[in-house]
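Chapter review: from sequence to fold.
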Amino acid sequence: MTTPVPGPVRPAATARPQDARRSLVAGSVGNFIEWYEFGIYGYFATVIAAQFFTPEGGSEVEGLVRAYASFALAFFFRPVGAAVFGRFGDRVGRRPALVLVVCLMTGATAMIGLLPTYASIGAAAPWLLTLLRILQGLSAGGEFGGAVSVMTESAPPGRRGLYGAWQSFTVALGLLAGAAVAVVLASVLTPSQLHGWGWRVPFLLTLPLGLVALRLRLRLPPDAPPALAPEGRPRPRPRSGETVRAVVLGVGRMMGWSAAGYTFLVVLPSYLQSTLGTTFQRALLGTVLANLGFAASILPAGRLSDRIGRRTVMVAGALLVAVLALPLLHLVQDSDGPAYVKGAALFAAGACVGLMAGPGPAMLAEMFPARVRCTGLGLAYALSNAVFAGCAGLIITEVVERTGNVDVPGYYAAATCAVSVAALLTLRGDDHRRALR
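The token string follows.
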């Protein structure tokens, strides 16, 4: 079953078309910034490792592992942000929570672009970077619950999957934008310029983006406290034990999406460089192709889930990754293979992940009643990403280094998706037709 949290089913209030569109845009733009930032950190991981985590004479691999450890630490603060900002959004309203998180994310990301490096201030540099990563993790944890709640609650009847899919679609756009900026900088700058100051540019670009997002969110229509039903009566308070069980089940349904998504969409450039000796530009190009496949399948998958159900579409995506992860990775690893075959393999890997990411936000929103929706779905998403996405780069880099097995990314994505299939099979087939509670 998909809704372990008990409570009566009530029709959601129908938003005016202009308010629904405004909510969709305002929710999406924050996700775009969040994932643009997390993408550029992953794409520039080797550069960041050299600037912040590799003292003179230190090992490049050890520096990369430390950079990914900082990456993972930020993810483990996401659940804290989901709990804090989610609780705020469930008590006070979605709009105030979304305004706060976009301000925190924008400020912390822009500050990374201004940080002195290890060569300038020594061991204080990685600590300052890690502190800003923690602030980013807190804001990112609060972003998902508020944005998905706003987008799905304002969706017209029969389009909740499509509206929720825009959250995942803007994830793809953010990652693609980060990759595009990285490709441009790597193409027009020399390696010394890129390591000297060029890596700062993509982080500083978040400042104007954040100001646009803030303006859009301030224009959202005021929302009533979620503790009250549309008719003004207090909503029943769900039992905490049932909410916790729903969060745990949500993590299981999310883990394949989280792990496979970060493996193929974010960690791939560093894996290709450090393990297969690929150039920075070629590694980024491969990542762009994977993200294009991801983006291409998200909205169709969300729309399809409105017609045939979340379970069918998401199980299909998880099964495809579980079966095809290793064969697709082997195509990429083949040094004699044609470039178009490798490109097609990366595109297909991203498209398979998109089948899970499209219906995923609506699936999570349908698991929780309005009074705890922002907190519940935010925690499920944040915990899954903290464990299975945030640690992906660290796990893959460390295990490949210790074992010499270059197939580790494929095993990791396949195993987590196999577990997700079992959790996704507990979904009801008619959840997409039921009103949000």
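Two observations follow directly from the output. The two ends are 15 Å apart (CA to CA). The CA atoms of residues 289 and 302 lie 21 Å apart.
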